[in-house]
UniProtKB/TrEMBL annotation:
Residues 1211-1225 have a biased composition (Polar residues). The keyword DNA-binding does not apply. This is Ribosomal RNA-processing protein 12-like conserved domain-containing protein. Belongs to the RRP12 family. Residues 1020-1030, 1049-1061, 1192-1205 have a biased composition (Basic and acidic residues). It comes from Cladonia borealis. Residues 675-696, 996-1138, 1157-1232 are annotated as: Disordered. Residues 14-278 form the RRP12 N-terminal HEAT domain.
Length: 1232
């Protein structure tokens, strides 16, 4: 922002505290005008200096606080634009004036201090090398920087931040000199280091005596922040101050305060980052030497991890600056850090492992792997020996960490691991083969990295499988096969042919030798081994290095035979053949640099292209095999074969493509001729469903034609389109017709196909129009997709195709199939966009239009007019479809249509609310809902006068959920326009319906508030996002009304209806028995899951809840033999006293009375539901005393007689009531 813009902002203040500044600025400008000075930065600066001496002085201090604040603020804005010589000449005057503010800042407001810091920053930036040579005792720049250093630790955050920013700016803009550092860098570093050292020492003395509130140590954190500021601003910390700084920071890292530890390591990170450039890199060796000398004790778990992290980061920067020198030091560093893996502290081991991994990733140059010198090979050998030593017993407790380091070592060494790390592979393989070894997962990861780096051949030389001819005393290593499957890539295919093909033959021969006998476990193992062996092929064919030699005619023939004879191996073989093509194409099309490509793949783009050329010689024969296999495979298992075919078609030469296409086309024509010659009886037999039935040959060949289409040259397109013209009119075979329609969308995915669609657009238009009457229902969606492709490539001169096919698209909006409806809606939107681009519509070319029909201009309004023509259709279905189509495109383009057009559409469709046909009205309801939600208020609000009566006239119609839909639309209308606006236009006989909506809404709010008060509020409505695939579907079908599906509003006060209202969020509840946990694995647990919130169980009165119950040592409840005054300890209800005789009578009545439980035939329990008049014998009936029943229901029915249950002890003998005794199902004993 320029000075003029800043001053303009001040001249029109928006805040009260800015008005004083505006007044001062106005006075300055008036003075300059009176004295006829131009408004330059120098003129402003001179005038403000005069005001500064009036408001602040070195002798009297702050004379006028308000004036000083405004003047210094304006000086801060103007000073950066003043010439440097003028600032240097006025340095002493300004610093002397501002001295009271800067040195006695505690009693001065922060805005004035911040502005003073800004002025001082501008002055310091203008100083030259000679001025910085003055000592701090004189009035010069060093005294100014000392003030900034003091303010950089101020307790006020904004003052502290402004000071640190000023120091950063000053140190980064050093005056011209041969030195790398700023003249004040040493002074700043010394001051900051002294502050940190003093505070750290003081905090160390107070350790253990500090109050909890002082543990944060803000002073030390601020001092560390200042060190970080200086280190990041001055090209790295000054070289002479590196050793003491490292010592202080390492001591601070011992602190338990995580903020201090983080601040210390952030400083190290800043120092390393600042040393990453060539200018400051000379400081790095000294810094690393200082850090190395501060090496903590071997078992210092508090300080050693951060020290290791600093070492790791430091050598990362060193590797960027001098990779060769750092690589030569790597073996010693590796050996030093690996010694920490023997520590008993887990944190130390983790830090050491991460440091070693960082060394391997960052400090090993790529050139040492691609083209190593003799010296580089010696360094790699030393690293390998150190890694092998990590597998000794000394490091056994750290083997999990060691395994991660070894994985990184294999990843870094890549193919150089061969010979160097064979001992590592052997040791880990022996550990992995031991049954008692617990780290199998980690060992598998290391061996997997070894397979990727060394290749499977080198790994198997060290760890042979021992499967075909196991040696005595050596176990088989079949567990290696899954590891090989997941990690083999970019290796030699010849190894698979020499090692695994014979092994597969041996295993398969043992399966064959078993014959038709029952399969033993051993035979099943052999079959599994065969599967696992061929599962390795996709990895071996992932960019193999020796493709030109290993993939020959004999190998291709073997794969072809396996595809024919071994269906269970087809998946792996097809995936392998697909990998073979795609891995090479990925290398060719990638933008990876050549050196990185060699490092990753050991192959250049030229090599990959040679391999593709070699493969293309086999493509024709492989495609023939794949075509045959495809025709012999059931449709549900064909996907992977088609993907493989697609891959090889992309590399097949054009001549072979044409030959393949001609053969498939001839076979398809023959199959079509054969199918047309069949009798009707034969076709009926074919339509009968059969399990695992192969599809007709024509279907299979059509799939292949579609796959071929995007690779075909342009001369073949006439044949291709003629095939489509033959198949599309055949409605007798819907599946074949469906496949033919898929041809156009497939062609649109290739550049050649897109050109053909544009070139033959007129031919395709005629074909689609001529086949409109023969399309079958299953092919409707694919036909709409084909029409969409034609419309997308439609030239502006052929827009008559849109009105020609529009009626079919509109009627498809009412299709039963959801995907077909969605395709129709998308096509309507696409047509509207095409029409909105303009052009001419030759109406004479539209079917059933006169030859002299005028030419119309294409526009969005014209398209709406075309769709609206369906409203005068002859059938209700057509009218309904037209309304649905209008709803969709109006929702999409309402913002682009003129308001009169929208008003006309709304007015027209409003009339259809009075239609007697329910199908039409159903569509109109959808339109009204979308209109109320999406259209502007000025358009909809005037139409409420007719819309509301029309809607309410259907509120009594329960069929097709009309009542619920109307209710929801009215709810949305009330939400948008208010209750009064809806009630105003509502007919008198429907007012009750509107009132019910309002009451329902208010009741819902009350229940929601009550739930929120109880802490059971439902989740926010954001949960409903994602229910619909588009915004239109959400607007049309969405409903956040809890009662939108209810058809009965007269009983809204019933308890069940209230439950439904409370469950509008679709929550799920689990009712759990407190005496027994719910077993979710039990099928009976579904009975405990409910979509309604469970009601709380009725509790006993507080009197009984507060009883002091006793338990014995087993946790059983103890009753009787109590010293309490309450003799009636078992009374569950009632207040009266009971006698022994009453208790016996109640017991006898429960056993033998008319309400007693009896056993019928088969031992089934029977319960009597008879009741005596007066309730005299209902001693065991318990009333559910729930008050008034809720909402006043049940009142006026008479007061229910109070029935009480009392259990009386037959004697005063103590007894136990066990929880397990209640689970028995034995009948009660009879009385003697």
């Amino acid at each position: 922002m320029s000075l003029t813009e800043k001053l303009d902002k001040i001249r029109s203040p928006k805040l009260q505290n800015q008005r004083e500044t505006a007044v001062v600025l106005s006075a300055v400008e008036d003075t300059l005008k009176d004295q006829k000075y131009s408004a330059t930065p120098t003129a402003y600066f001179s005038a403000l200096l005069a005001l500064l001496t009036q408001s602040v002085s070195s002798s009297n201090g702050l004379v006028n606080k308000e004036l000083a604040t405004s003047v210094v603020y304006l000086l801060d804005l103007v000073a950066p634009h003043v010439p440097a010589p003028l600032l240097r000449s006025k340095f002493s005057q300004i610093l002397t004036s501002l001295w009271p503010v800067l040195t006695h800042s505690d009693g001065i407001e922060a805005p004035l201090v911040r502005s003073s810091i800004g002025c001082l920053e501008s002055l310091l930036l203008a100083q030259d090398n000679a001025a910085w040579a003055f000592p701090q005792t004189q009035v010069g720049p060093r005294r100014g920087i000392a003030v900034l250093l003091a303010l950089a630790s101020d307790h006020r955050p904004k003052v502290r931040k402004r000071s640190q920013d000023a120091i950063t700016h000053v140190l980064k803009n050093a005056p011209p000199s041969p030195s790398v550092d700023h003249p004040a860098a040493d002074m700043c570093a010394e001051t900051a280091l002294r502050n940190v050292s003093d505070l750290a020492a003081a905090n160390g003395k107070k350790k253990g005596k500090v109050h909890r509130q002082e543990e944060h140590q803000p002073g030390l954190v601020h001092a560390l922040q200042l060190v970080k500021t200086i280190a990041s601003a001055s090209g790295g910390w000054p070289s002479k101050k590196i050793e003491p700084l490292c010592e202080v920071l390492m001591n601070i890292s011992k602190s338990n305060n995580e903020y201090l530890t983080m601040a210390a390591f952030e400083i190290f990170e800043v120092i390393f980052a600042s040393l990453a450039d060539e200018i400051s890199s000379a400081k790095l060796p000294r810094l690393m030497g200082a850090i190395s000398e501060l090496r903590p004790s071997q078992n210092d778990s508090q300080l050693l991890p951060p020290w290791i992290a600093v070492i790791s980061r430091g050598y990362d920067v060193s590797a960027q600056l001098d990779p060769e020198d750092t690589f030569q030091k790597l073996p010693d560093l590796f050996e030093m850090v690996s010694g920490f893996l023997a520590s008993s502290s887990h944190n130390i081991r983790i830090s050491a492992a991460e440091c070693l991994i960082s060394f391997l990733v960052n400090c090993v140059p790529n050139t040492t792997i691609l083209e190593p010198s003799i010296f580089d090979e010696k360094v790699l050998g030393r690293l390998a020996k150190s890694a092998i030593a990590l597998l000794s017993v000394k490091y056994q407790s750290a083997w999990m960490e060691v395994f991660t380091v070894l994985s990184a070592l294999f990843t870094t060494f890549k193919w150089r691991s061969v010979g160097l790390l064979d001992e590592v592979v052997k040791t880990i393989g022996e550990l992995r083969g031991s049954d008692s070894f617990n780290g199998k997962k980690e060992a598998d990861a290391v061996l997997g990295e070894a397979v990727e780096a060394m290749g499977p051949e080198s790994v198997l030389n060290v760890l042979p499988l021992n499967l075909a001819k196991p040696k005595a005393g050596q176990t088989g290593r079949a567990w290696l096969l899954p590891i090989l499957r997941d990690h083999v890539q970019n290796t030699n295919l010849a190894h698979f042919r020499s090692e695994f093909v014979p092994l597969s033959e041996t295993m398969f021969q043992r399966v064959i030798d078993n014959g038709t006998s029952e399969k033993t476990m051993e035979i099943k193992i052999f079959e599994t081994l065969v599967q696992q062996i061929w599962a390795l092929l996709p990895g071996y064919l992932n960019a193999p290095l020796d493709l030109a030699n290993a993939f020959d005619q004999s190998f291709a023939e073997m794969l072809a035979n396996l595809l024919y004879k071994q269906p269970e191996l087809r998946t792996d073989i097809c995936r392998a053949l697909q990998n073979l093509v795609e891995s090479h194409k990925e290398i060719i099309s990638g933008d990876i640099p050549e050196q990185d490509l060699l490092l990753q793949r050991r192959m250049t783009k030229a090599d990959a292209q040679k391999h593709i050329d070699h493969l293309s010689t086999f493509a024709g024969n492989l495609l023939a095999v794949l075509f045959n296999v495809y025709s012999q495979t059931l449709p549900q298992y064909r996907g992977y074969i088609l993907q493989c075919i697609n891959a090889y078609l992309s590399i097949t030469p054009e001549k072979e493509l044409l030959e393949t296409f001609n053969r498939v086309t001839a076979m398809l024509e023959a199959a079509l001729a054969e199918s047309t010659s069949q009798t009707q009886a034969d076709k009926q037999k074919q339509k009968q469903p059969q399990t695992d039935k192969m599809p007709p040959t024509s279907h299979t060949l059509m799939d292949l034609i579609i796959t071929l289409s995007i690779y075909l040259p342009r001369p073949t397109f006439p044949t291709l389109f003629s095939l489509a013209a033959v198949i599309l009119p055949q409605s007798s075979d819907p599946q074949l017709q469906k496949k033919a329609y898929k041809l156009l969308p497939r062609l649109a995915t290739s550049p050649t196909g897109t050109f053909a669609l544009q070139d033959r657009n007129a031919e395709l238009q005629a074909l689609l129009l001529s086949t409109a009457s023969t399309v079958s229902a299953p092919a409707r969606r694919d036909r709409l997709a084909a029409v969409a492709v034609v419309v997308e490539h439609l030239p502006q001169t052929s827009l008559h195709f849109i009105p020609s096919i529009l009626s079919e698209v509109v009627i498809s909006a009412k299709e039963v199939n959801e995907k077909a409806r969605t395709a129709a809606f998308d096509l309507l939107v696409l047509m509207a966009k095409k029409m909105s681009q303009g052009g001419q519509i030759d109406q004479s070319q539209i079917p059933n239009m006169p030859a002299g029909a005028p030419i119309a201009s294409a526009s969005l309004e014209e398209f709406f007019t075309m769709v609206s023509a369906g409203l005068v259709g002859s059938t209700p279905h057509m009218i309904s479809a037209s309304i649905t189509a209008l709803t969709r495109i109006l929702y999409e383009f309402s913002s682009q249509l003129p308001q009169p057009v929208i008003e006309e559409i709304v007015t027209t469709l409003d009339l259809y609310l009075a239609d007697a046909n329910r199908e039409i009205v159903r569509s109109v309801l959808g339109f009204v809902k979308v209109a109320i939600i999406s259209l502007p208020e000025p358009i909809i609000k005037p139409r409420l006068e007719t819309l509301i009566p029309g809607l309410t006239s259907w509120s009594r119609e329960h069929k097709a959920h009309f009542r619920a839909k109307v209710k929801h639309i009215l709810e949305r209308t009330i939400r948008r326009f208010g209750y009064d606006a809806v009630e105003k236009y509502c007919p008198e006989d429907q007012k009750k319906f509107i009132h019910n909506i309002r009451k329902t809404k208010e009741r819902r709010k009350r229940h929601k508030a009550a739930d929120a008060a109880e802490g059971t509020a439902s989740e926010p409505q954001d949960r409903k996002k994602g229910r619909f695939e588009s915004e239109y579907d959400e607007a049309l079908y969405g409903s956040d009304s809890s009662s939108s599906s209810s058809t009965d509003t007269d009983n809204r006060d019933s308890p069940s209806t209230r439950d439904n209202d409370n469950n509008d969020t679709g929550g799920t509840y689990i009712t759990e028995d407190p005496s027994e946990p719910l077993d979710l694995l039990d099928r009976k647990s579904l009975a405990h899951i409910s979509s309604r919130k469970p009601l709380p169980k009725p509790s006993l009165s507080s009197k009984h809840n507060n009883r002091n119950t006793k338990t014995d040592a087993d946790g059983k409840l103890i009753f009787g033999n109590s010293n309490d005054d309450d003799d009636d300890a078992m009374a569950l209800d009632g207040e009266g006293e009971g006698s022994l005789e009453q208790g016996i009578n109640a017991y006898v009545d429960a056993i033998r009375g008319r309400d007693a439980v009896q056993r019928g035939r088969g031992g089934r329990l029977k319960f009597s539901n008879k009741r005596e008049k007066g309730g005299g014998s209902a001693a065991m009936d318990v009333d559910n005393d729930d008050g008034d029943g809720g909402d006043g229901e049940g009142k006026g029915k008479g007061k229910a007689s109070e029935k009480k249950v009392r259990f009386i002890l037959a004697s005063k003998t103590q007894f136990h009531l066990s929880t397990s005794s209640s689970k028995g199902s034995q009948p009660p004993p009879s009385m003697p």
